[in-house]
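Subject: Protein record for review, amino acid sequence with backbone structure tokens
Category: Structural biology, sequence-to-fold work with a learned token vocabulary.
Format: Residues in single-letter code; tokens as whole numbers, each standing for a residue.
Body of memo: The sequence and its backbone structure tokens, given next.
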Amino acid sequence: MVSGFQKFLLRGNLIDLAVGVLIGAAFGRVVDSFTSGLILPIIGIFGGVPDFSALTFTVNGSLFKYGAFLTSLLSFVLTAAIIYFFVIIPFNHLMERFKRQEKEAVAGPSNEEKLLAEIRDAIKGQSAGSVPPGSKSPF
């Protein structure tokens, strides 16, 4: 039983997952601070800082704090937008560029390029062995 547990802990996937979770948590804090420190104040320039936490309503003595939910929802949407526009889109463009460069390097010359090279070489061969003066050209 202990041996199986040890194998489970030392599998590469588990370590990769742990590193991914830690980096994701750290990246989440960076994006949250970017959202609250830069994006929300920019929005605040146009209409006040969007903090809805004071919004509440009461039903039969129960207090519903829907403003805190709205603030969290706005923060989530802004965070998702920041990640999409500043991480996902640039990363996808970079990966496309690498794939194109890799494909061009691996592909080599196309069939058209090979055919044109053969024609060029054939023409060079004919001009190198030119026809002596006074004899008939094969063309």
User: Anything to note?
Assistant: The chain has a mean pLDDT of 81.
